[in-house]
Here is the input.
Amino acid sequence: MINKNFNKVCIYGAGAIGGWIGVRLAGAGCRVSVVARGATLDALKRHGLRSRHGHVEATASVQASANPAELGVQDLVVIAVKSPAMLEVARHIGPLIGPHTVVLTAMNGVPWWFFHGFGGRFENTRLTAVDATGEIGAAIPAASVIGCVVHASCSLILPGYVHHHFGNKLIIGEPSGVRTERVAQLAALLGKAGFDVDVSDQIQKDTWYKLWGNMTVNPISAITGATTDLILGDDLVRGFVSSVMLEAKEIGARIGIPIDQQPEDRHAVTLKLGAFKTSMLQDVEMERAVELDALVTVVKELATLTGVPTPFTDALLGLSRLHARVRGLY
Here is the structure.
């Protein structure tokens, strides 16, 4: 039996990752609902939530609505949107959250709750790059949050229909690092749903390590249209990427999340994944807003807080921001 605390699950953001997680949780016996609109809402009502991995297909019947108030208070809310959508999510998510609701944030980049219960002298600092007015933090209390770092590649075949390419790992953890009963119960549920689950003693470190790689290749791919193998295959670009990563490594060390690797170690990991399009390049091609703030702008803000000079990060941010603004994507 599933723990009764997680019977009712809502996916907020039924894109590639949210859809993948939703299908799996429905397969584990959860009553899954989805906040969606437009073509995705229509597809969910007609076909359910669908996924494909290799030759294996799965379909889940879900309750779908554009209005969270129609879905009511949930046991678990999975937020799986790109960071530019978070302010709108914060303004509408209220009806889903009760006093015991757990909010799992399956998102890229540095989240608004990053310094909740963590960071030494920076603890409880609000990062304006990801929560400019504090509205997100007010709407989604950090005490409700369990962080999640996703190591998987998924894309949409059609609205509400996910293609799971590779990777199956979810790293979850309380922002405080405490191994609570609720994080243990959630890990058990996710394991039952078929995910490879790790519970982290410091989810910020896992978040930062993932960011350490994708804060560079994502915006560079968006500017150039290149896949990751081409980016790291050019000596000059690879050197630039390494310089940005060394700046981020120093920032991490100053906020209590040191990385014991060098950029070349991470490049080797990325190259093993082959030629693939980053999520930011896919967003540019689809003319969707790019999530620069959670991946790069926030790093510059952290550099200012910690006193780390970041000329290479500044150049990357300036160029990628200008590129996105010219296209109306930022």
Summary: The chain has two domains: 4-201, 206-326.
